[in-house]
Amino acid sequence: MNVTSANKYPLLQEILNLKGLQQQPVYSIRDLANLFVVTPRAIQNRVASGQLQSRDLPGRAKFLSEDIETFLVASRKKVSHGK
């Protein structure tokens, strides 16, 4: 593991570590579906809704580590403090 990558993408790295996986240069829809234990359609829906940014690289939609980290940061639930 590259220390710089772990510091740059801490949420992604935490998930990868829990699953015993290494960071990849590029991820496919299927890679993300496996990572998040959802169907490829669920990932496609997130892309279609604008929640997850994909890249138009050769082949199908691809995702960079920074795209996944941005998605993870934005997905944090807001905690409401009742008054």
How would you explain this protein's 3D organization?
The radius of gyration is 14 Å and the shape is globular. The longest helix has 10 residues, at 10-19. It is built from five helices and two strands. By secondary structure, it is mostly helical. The model has no long low-confidence stretch (mean pLDDT 87). It has a domain at 24-74: Arc Repressor Mutant, subunit A.
In a nutshell, what does this entry contain?
This protein is mainly α and 83 residues long.
Please tag this protein with its features:
single chain, 83 residues, mainly alpha, Arc Repressor Mutant, subunit A, two-stranded antiparallel sheet, 5 helices, globular
Question: What does the secondary structure layout of this molecule look like, with pairings?
Answer:
Layout (H helix, E strand, L loop, with lengths): L2 H6 L1 H10 L7 E2 H8 L3 H9 L13 E2 L1 H10 L9
Antiparallel strand pairs: 1-2
Helix pairs in contact: 3-4
